Amino acid sequence: MAASCARTVGSFLGKCGSCSSSISAVTSQLSRQVLSRQICVSSALRRKNLAAAGPEKYTMEYIKKQVEEFDIGKRHLANMMGEDPENFTQEDIDVRVPCCLCGHPDQVFPKQRAIQWGEDRRPFHFLFYTGKQSYYTLMHETFGKILVIEKYQDRLRAKGLLTKDIKQISLSASRWLKKEELEELLVENISIQDYNRFIQLMESLLSMPYCTIEEEFVLRYRQNLEAQSRKQAMPVLERDERGVAFSTADGRRKTSDSTVTLRDCGSGRITINGRDYLQYFPVLQDREQLMFPLQFMGMLGRFDLECTVSGGGRSSQAGALRLAISRGLLSFLSDGEMENMRQAGLLTPDPRVRERKKPGQKKARKKFTWKKR
Amino acid sequence: MALHRLSFRLRQTVTHVRSLHTSGCGQQQEATAVESEPEPFSVFRAQENDPACQSEKLIGQYYTLPPAHIKTVFPHGLPPRYQQQIKTFNEACMMVRSPALEVISYLKKTDFSKPAVRYIFYGMKGSGKTMSLCHAVHFCYTQGWLVLHIPDAHLWVKNCKELLPSSYNTSRFDQPLQATEWLRNFRITNEPLLSKIKTKQRYIWTKREFTEEGAALGELVDQGIARVKSSSDVVGAVIKELRLQSGQPESDFRMAVAVDGVNALWGRSTIKKEDKSSVDPEELTLVYNLRKLMKNDWRGFDSMDPFIPVSVPNYSEKEFESCYLYYMDRQWLQHPQSRTEEGKKEIIFLSNKNPSMMDRICAFL
Fold this sequence. Notes:
The complex is a heterodimer of chains A (373) and B (365). Chain A is an alpha+beta fold and 373 residues long. Chain A has 2 domains: 59-227, no CATH class; 238-344, Ribosomal Protein S5, domain 2 (2-Layer Sandwich), CATH 3.30.230. Chain A is 47% helix and 10% strand. Chain A contains 15 helices and 8 strands. In chain A, the strands form 2 sheets. In chain A, strands 3-4-5-8-6-7 form a 6-stranded mixed beta sheet. A two-stranded antiparallel sheet of chain A has the order 1-2. In chain A, α1 (2-15) runs antiparallel to α5, α2 (20-29) crosses α4 (43-53) and α13 packs parallel to α14 (314-330). Chain B is mostly helical and 365 residues long. Chain B is built from 15 helices and 10 strands. A two-stranded antiparallel sheet of chain B has the order 1-2. Chain B has a two-stranded parallel ribbon with strand order 3-10. Chain B has a two-stranded parallel sheet with strand order 4-9. In chain B, β5 and β6 form a beta hairpin. In chain B, α1 (2-13) packs across α2 (24-36), α11 runs parallel beside α12 and α14 packs across α15 (355-363). Chain A binds chain B through residues 268, 270, 276-279, 284, 287-288, 291, 294-295, 298, 300-301, and chain B through 124, 342, 345-346, 348-352, 354, 357, 361. Chain B: It holds the Pfam family DAP3. Chain B: Keywords: Mitochondrion, Ribonucleoprotein, Ribosomal protein, Transit peptide.
């Protein structure tokens, strides 16, 4: 079943032959770390890759055919998996066949504009000859909303119910769409000045007191910011025989691994690999790294640290220990303090590793002596 | 006058003192005020400057070494960083700590008819062993003992510029430079006693130079300083004399030997002979003689007493507190944050209450 499943998937991939190269390009980018941070892996990106690969124009019939075939394939897959063919969503596909990178054709093929004029070669849209019809429609629409709000304000003023303290739209959790995102939404190119004018107009709309009427319209053009305070994986707070609270945490940096046990005893003693930390880290800089999380939270003399560390060099061991200490400290802190730590950068593992040496160069970046001739 | 000085200090640090105008009753009032107030600036200063009278109550407090003593007792004994500190602060304040006090109390109770006891200060790097040794040496000096203080045995065992084959014993090597330097310092330290001690033997240095029996030890030392080539042998002779004489009941002086870095006498040396083979410490005259001294047969007994180890730990809470207050008093901590509670906690963390580490950290604050 798995084999036949794979074959179907293979034929699937074979059909989208022209986009296979783009998929391989996308695969190389989809490493473990980047998967969580896919920024703008949208049709905009794929559009660029496809431009290198195959022909740009896809006719409507071609796309329709692709959609039908995709649906049929999806139903086959559902049948094989034993799921209900009707309610088999894209998420189910991703869960069942994680290697299937070919999504719905609407996502794979770029959004293209249908032919804008009819058989008598007269354009459908009244703003066609401006060249940027969707952009100008949008601007007109926005201005229309502004007029609506003004009329509403006038009416209220006439009735005498004009109040200043009204709920405003909460804008803290979102940002304006970027220029590329707006282009993708409007399916046409706009210039920087156009984009700025649009943002200005929206801001002026927001400056009016009763803009909450058009909240839904405004939010359409705002992008939610990514989850700010992602819940960190907190280590468990345990208690040992004497009733002392302690927690254990790990940390990693470059090639060092460390484990730290924080005990809430009340003395400030630190042991690393069985040795005193003054002996282990004779350099002041490393001890400052160890001190940073505790000092930031103001808990310097409170904890007893028992650490083990291995691998890497002096600095990376200190960095690994620092991360482990911050993580261990999480279980003793409140949420607000955890947010402070996160913003201070104490909880982010440092992703920098040693860059590989390239052939044709002396080291990772250093090139051989350049000779003019 | 002393009262005036005291109140002047008060004026600098304590702000709520009334202005002092010279009037008899006014000064007396100030005096009583001084006694009744807790005297924040001198919590860490001991009133006893004499090591003999210092008791355990004074642990953690600083006592001042008189400048005259420093020049005589410690021409070469103090660690270089401490010497810089003396120059900066214009005074030599040493902290009274328990290892030194312990050894001093043992020294007070020594029974001179028994073989000499050896005490070893041991501890982590920078925990204050040399300073404790100097404290004990100061005590010995104030008691009028003869002090044989070798500042750093490591200096004799490495980085030697000149190495001469010994005139006395050809298998051994001489170090004239270090020997003369040490003899010079020895003379400065023990001037009064050198004229009293007489040699018991005749020493022949070259065909024309010799030292008669019964000459003062001072002459022997001068001979060594003058004749650089035979200085190591002079050192050997001095040591032999002292060893023989300190045991006799008729001698009226006590001797104390203090060697810093005594483990160098038995370790490896970095000196190389001309054929690049390394020299054993045994083959150096100075080291050989010193080892004989360490051997504890001053009475002629060959019994090797076990050492009494005295551990020198890092500062305790109280000691750290007093060191911190001392630096504050001397305006050594300039950084505004170092004067706060959190700054103090940071210093504790970063130095782990190790004296030398704390000194280094506070140096740039």
